[in-house]
Design a protein that fits this description.
By secondary structure, the protein is an alpha/beta fold. The protein has helices spanning 2-11, 28-45, 86-94, 121-134, 147-158, 182-190, 195-198, 204-212, 215-223, 250-263, 266-273, 275-281, 310-315, 318-322, 339-342, 344-355, and strands at residues 48-54, 57-64, 71-75, 98-102, 140-145, 163-169, 294-299, 326-332. Strands 1-2-4-3-5-6-7-8 form an 8-stranded mixed β-sheet, with helices on both faces. It is globular and about 50 Å long.
Length: 358
């Protein structure tokens, strides 16, 4: 424990932006108000919402389907929310599954601890194990995107006994490199203006978002990005951003902007700020294999697919060595990073086709 606390202190001994006040930890009153708004949406969609006490935090969960049906756990990434799975929730429920989509730790109506040390893979996987226990299940199907996929890979490494099969999207399994910390590697490849590097100093990017006009600017910047190249975010990049993509509805835009204006982004940014800490504490899993059945999907315009060595790793057997039960790699032409938003029906079909095998 002393070692972990020491790692936390050293990993986050940054200079914090002056007068920064984190806004990512909603009060109990705010959470009740937010859930009230969500419940109005539930009346339209048939999706049920509730708050659960999980692993020491209050977690908001959206779900639909019969209580005894097989559970599909849907894990979102950054800057997403449970709402990104709304199409899949309804479709999977109609196909005989119980679809469950939490707001992940740090997002939406779930608690968002302000300290990045509270976002280790131990915390994040612990949230999922606690949620599955609360749902009364032993095993679930896991469908995950972006940071949800990152957490899902570690879930599969830590507790493969709790996963029937997994569909991972956009972020492939990344074997731990014992020779180099992730942030050192990213800075070496892309420089300090790479978006992950720009997210590191607590309060800095939050202040820039506020100065640029709020959540809308960062959301537009991220969701409109369809260039198969690294996302760079130099200072001033949020002042002039493209419009939202055509596949985002006005309802979706309003929901995301309202929610992130209420909560801020610090909770989600803490996933990135814990990268080096997670590298240090996961040393025992170096060279470990993922041993659950997996289907992987990615768009060919996704910046992750176009990173150094990724295409070769996916298409020429590299990931199969690390994930021996990998059953399929699907590359979707003309599709960007946010697959379940951009092609909801196609993604639902791929999920259903895979999980019906088990």
């Amino acid at each position: 424990m002393r070692r972990l606390l020491s790692l936390c202190r050293s990993a986050f001994s940054y200079k914090t932006t002056t007068n920064y006040k984190p806004s990512c930890f909603p009060t109990q009153q705010t959470r009740v108000q937010n859930l009230s708004a969500s419940n109005k949406m539930a009346d339209l969609t048939g999706i049920n919402h509730r708050m659960l006490k999980i692993n020491g935090i209050n977690m908001h969960v959206a779900e639909k389907g019969d209580e005894g049906a097989p559970i599909v756990l849907l894990l979102h990434g950054f800057p997403d929310l449970w709402y990104s799975w709304r199409h899949q929730i309804s479709a999977l429920a109609s196909l005989g599954y119980r679809a469950v989509a939490p707001d992940m730790r740090g997002f939406g109506d779930t608690d968002a601890p302000t300290d990045a040390c509270s976002y280790t893979y131990g915390h994040l996987v612990g949230d999922l194990v606690g949620l599955i226990d609360e749902l009364g299940a032993h095993q679930v199907f896991v469908v995950a995107h972006d940071w949800g996929a990152m957490v899902a890979w570690w879930f599969a490494l830590f507790r493969p006994d709790r996963i029937k099969a997994m569909v991972s999207m956009s972020v492939p399994f990344t074997p731990r490199n014992p020779k180099m910390k992730p942030l050192d590697m990213l800075r070496g490849f892309y420089g300090d203006d790479y978006y992950i590097c720009r997210f590191q100093v607590p309060g800095e990017i939050e202040a820039e978002i506020a100065e640029a006009g709020g959540a809308e600017k960062l959301l537009r910047k991220v969701y409109s990005y369809r260039t198969p190249a690294p996302l760079m975010l130099p200072k001033g990049a949020l002042e002039d951003v493209p419009p939202y993509p055509d596949w985002m509805s006005n309802d979706e835009i309003t929901y995301y902007q309202d929610k992130f204006n209420q909560t801020g982004f610090t909770g989600g940014l803490n996933y990135y700020r814990a990268l080096n800490l997670n590298w240090e504490i996961t040393a025992p899993w170096t060279k470990a294999q993922v041993k659950v059945p997996v289907k992987f999907m990615v768009g060919d315009l996704d910046l992750t697919y176009n990173g150094p060595g990724v295409k070769d790793y996916l298409n020429n057997g590299g990931m199969k060595k690390d994930v021996p039960l990998l059953q399929d790699v699907v590359v979707l032409p003309g599709v960007g990073h946010f697959l379940q938003h951009e092609k909801p029906d196609l993604i639902t079909d791929h999920i259903y086709d895979f999980i019906t095998k088990f």
